Backbone:
């Protein structure tokens, strides 16, 4: 057992014990850390995507022009294959609010 090695304590640790020796060496710990950081990054991106989902007229009425522009830019930047119905709805609502000056 090396200086930085540690014993497998949980099922999450066991997923990264590639040689099944019951100890996580530095390479296995690195893979575990990489997976953990990737999961955190994915959660962060998902939370950002939820910010402008399901906008309605009441929310748009309370937004200033910069917030409406940000919502429209966000919706337009999303991949076209994801949630097309919601994407079109938000684009229409934001565009109409610009036209109506709300």
Residues:
């Amino acid at each position: 057992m090396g200086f930085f090695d540690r014993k497998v304590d949980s099922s999450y640790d066991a997923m990264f014990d590639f040689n099944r020796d019951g100890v996580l060496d530095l390479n296995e710990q690195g893979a575990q850390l990489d997976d953990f950081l990737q999961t955190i990054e994915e959660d962060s991106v998902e939370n950002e995507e939820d910010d402008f989902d399901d906008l309605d007229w009441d929310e748009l009425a309370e937004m200033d022009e910069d917030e409406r522009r940000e919502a429209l830019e966000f919706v337009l930047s999303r991949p076209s294959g994801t949630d097309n119905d919601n994407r079109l709805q938000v684009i229409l609502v934001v565009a109409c609010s610009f036209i109506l000056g709300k």
Observations:
- The beta strands are 6-7, 23-24.
- The longest strand covers residues 6-7.
